[in-house]
Amino acid sequence: MSTxxxxxxxxxxxxxxxxxxxxxxxxxxxSPGSAWCEEYPTANEAENDAARGALYCLWGEDGSLWGAAxxxxxxxxxxxxxxxxxxxxxxxxxxxVGIRPDLQGKGLxxxxxxxxxxxxxxxxxxxVRLLVSPENPxxxxxxxxxxxxxxxxxxxxDTDWHCxxxxx
Length: 168
Known about the structure:
Elements: E1 2-4, E2 8-12, H1 18-28, H2 43-51, E3 55-60, E4 65-72, H3 76-79, E5 91-99, H4 108-122, E6 127-132, H5 137-145, E7 149-156, E8 159-167
Helix pairs in contact: 1-2
C-alpha cells in the first residue's frame, strides 16, 4: 500500500531501503530531544523491521528518503507494561519515527504517522502504543494531536518514557 502526492510518497520499505533508513536515523539522532544515539537505532533494526513488513518510508519527490516509522508487534520490554489498555486484542507498537532534520516542522511526521495509523487499522490492529521521551518536544506535541492519550510512564533502556496509546 502506498500513497503519493505532488511532494511525497509513503510505502512499506523493502530490504533494499535499510541502508537509507539507517542513514536517516543517524541524521535524526541530532534532533532536539531525540533519545537516539550512535548505537541505536541501526541498520539492523531497519533490516529487521523491513523483513517483518513493519517499516514505512516517506520518500520525497526527488526520490530521497524524508522519513521513516515502524509499526508492528510490541517489543518484549514494553509489551506487558501495566499502563496499556488490557482490552486491546491486537495492539501494535509505533516506534522509530524520524524525519530528516532539514525537513522537520513541515507536518511530515503527522502525515507519515497518520498514514501508518490508517494502514495498521486496515491490517487488523485495534490499538497503537508508543513510548515517547518527555524531553522530545516535537513528538510530545504531535501524538496528542493524532488522538494518543498519555496512559502512564516507565523507565526502559536507561531512559524515562511517557507511555501513550490510541485505540483504533
